Amino acid sequence: MAIYEIQPAYKIYAFDRGWRIMRYVTEHLFKRTDVAARWWFNKAQDLIRSTASKGWFIKYWVYVIVAGMWLAGATQYVSAMILAAAFLAVQAVVLSAWVGVSVVIMSLLALCTFTYGRFYRIFFRCPDCHKEMPIPTYICPKCGTEHTRLWPSIYGIIKHRCKTCDMRLPTLGPLGRNNINRICPHCRRPLNVGVGAGTNIHIPLVGGPSTGKTNYIVMATNEFKQTYETLHHYAVTFTDENHKRNFEANLQRLSHGHELLKTPDIVPQAYNLEIRAPGAWVPKFAYVYDAAGEAFNTNANTSLQEYYKYIHGVIFVIDPFAISEYRRLHQTDIELVRGSLRPSALNVMQAYERMMQMFEASIGIRKGGRYTQPIAIVMTKVDALNLEWEIGMPAAQALMAHDPSIVSEEDAISLLVRHFLYNYGLGNFVRDVESQFTNVKYFSCSALGRLPTQTDTRSFQPIRVLDPLVWLLINAKAIKAVQSQARLRDVAKPMVIQQVQRR
Amino acid sequence: MEEGCAWAIGILILVGITIAFIVYVVLPLSVFILLGIGIAGTVSGAGVALYNFYQVLVEAHKTLT
């Protein structure tokens, strides 16, 4: 990372022009003085020449006058020298003091910005190419010139003056830098206003093709937005207009009973969500990565998921119909609704192993230790084949009635899903994930709430999609736990019960 | 003898007058002229230098960006 780069801007007077002016003045002042002094010397010479034939008495007085002229000429140099010396001394002192003060202010601003950024975990990361940058490239609003280091520097402490159009560009966010368009210096795509303005939270969705990742995250985000804005007075906003438009289009499709189109991107564009708690000084800025399931089909595709080095938690999506043992036992039932179910073709363990390869490559192998990032294991499509009665709310309530030590429905579902995975031959997966991660929780949900069919255009009603996302955001410290628990008591429970009853 | 003394005294008076003329008239006048021109030149030179300095300074700020 180069802290200093030549900018298309004028440097501060004390760092460049002031010193060049000193040299210019000394050079040009003596040139001009020389001209003025030579006038006197030439006049004296002319006088001597014109009186060469005169008598000694005249010559004496001429020489007296000539001596005076020589004195006058010589003193021109002395005056110029005194002026130049005084100017150089004063200018050098002023410029040195100016440089000193500027460097101190720059260092303080850099230190404050760095400390603030590290304290709040604010980084500039591109949602498209996933690369981190010290600062985005800012585009001059007047002439379009690119400024790659628009921060307090020798080009200006609070403003840089563009060399192309003379426009003054603020160097700090609070002074208006955030309003200037910027691009990623690596992929040159525009960066939305939220990038670098909040605490970064990176959450990828992992799972094979057709596990329902996109349906899940759209429904979960929508429910999260509605619940937290209405009940807890959070502000949950899309900072990128395109993300917002796509999200709304997806919601529109789902509200008409149409499934979402398959995600085409092997390397996904993260969609950004700004989450601001009431009274929070700095918002949280979530990057949600929804890669196509094919990203986990091959090692080569998985290795392209560069964002793993930043992640704060994982939503690992499992399609129960991709579990071999379950599929074998329920083959007849599955075949009846295969078209609507669209079971994922990728084995759960394969997706998991590829995810772990990326973890090890990006974060490193934890010898003896475990990854601290929370991982939510989410079993989707529980609306089908009566899975709700096996790993859903009714089963959880039955388990709680049977075992009073289980205090919440969320914990009961976590136990049920864990047992489900054990029972259907994924004990190795459960053991491995629990040995690799310190914080694991199991969830069951349905993003659509029913099987999608061509003829049914009723809106999809999701079941428990919020729980995994909220749990992950709490563990990533993006939202407050107390409020979340209140939400689960007040909102999710009646809603889910209502949905189960409707089924 | 008396005539010779008168000549000598006359010559001495002339030499004295000449020296006095040189010392009290020619030399002060020479110095006055020399310094007069010198001081005038110095003053004008200082003025010119100051003006030149101002012009160069303005020119430098206009030329150098």
Topology:
The complex is a heterodimer of chains A (503) and B (65).
Chain A lengths: L16 H34 L5 H64 L4 E2 L6 E2 L3 E3 L6 E2 L11 E3 L6 E3 L11 E2 L15 E8 L6 H18 L4 E4 L2 H15 L15 E6 L7 E7 L8 H4 L11 E5 L5 H6 L1 H6 L1 H4 L6 H15 L12 E5 L8 H4 L1 H10 L6 H15 L3 H10 L3 E5 L21 H10 L5 H22 L1
Parallel strand pairs in A: 8-11, 8-12, 12-13, 13-14
Antiparallel strand pairs in A: 1-2, 3-4, 3-7, 5-6, 9-10, 10-11
Chain B lengths: L1 H62 L2
Q: Roughly what fraction of the amino acids of chain B lie in strands?
A: under 5%
Number of strands of chain A: 14
What is the overall number of helices of chain B?
Answer: 1
Give the overall pLDDT of chain A as a whole number: 85
Largest sheet of chain B, in brief, is: none
Which residue ranges of chain B are poorly predicted, with pLDDT under 50 across at least 5 consecutive positions? none
Number of helices of chain A: 15
Question: What's the overall geometry of chain B?
Answer: rod-shaped
Q: SSE order of chain B in H/E notation?
A: H
Give the end-to-end Cα distance of chain A, rounded to a whole number of Å. Answer: 57 Å
Approximately what portion of the residues of chain A adopt beta-strand conformation?
Answer: 5-15%
Largest sheet of chain A: 7 strands, mixed
Most extensive interface between two protein chains, with residue counts: A-B, 31 and 27 residues
Shape call of chain A = rod-shaped
Radius of gyration of chain B: 27 Å
- Cα Rg of chain A: 36 Å
Order of helices and strands of chain A: HHEEEEEEEEHEHEEHEHHHHEHHHHEHH
Describe the structure.
The complex is a heterodimer of chains A (503) and B (65). Chain A is α/β, with parallel strands linked by helices. In chain A, strand 10 (271-276) and strand 11 form a beta hairpin. Chain A has 15 helices and 14 strands. In chain A, the strands form four sheets. In chain A, strands 9-10-11-8-12-13-14 form a seven-stranded mixed β-sheet. Chain A has a three-stranded antiparallel β-sheet with strand order 4-3-7, with no helix packed on it. Chain A has helices spanning 17-50, 56-119, 213-230, 241-255, 299-302, 324-329, 331-336, 338-341, 348-362, 388-391, 393-402, 409-423, 427-436, 466-475, 481-502, and strands at residues 124-125, 132-133, 137-139, 146-147, 159-161, 168-170, 182-183, 199-206, 235-238, 271-276, 284-290, 314-318, 375-379, 440-444. Mean pLDDT of chain A is 85; it is low at 483-503. With 65 residues, chain B is mainly alpha-helical. Chain B is 95% helix and 0% strand. Chain B is built from one helix and no strands. Chain B has one helix spanning 2-63. The longest helix of chain B has 62 residues, at 2-63. The A-B interface holds A 10, 17, 20-21, 24-25, 28-29, 32-33, 36-37, 40, 60-61, 64-65, 67-69, 71-73, 75-76, 78-80, 83-84, 87 and B 30, 33-38, 40-42, 44-46, 48-50, 52-53, 55-57, 59-61, 63-65.
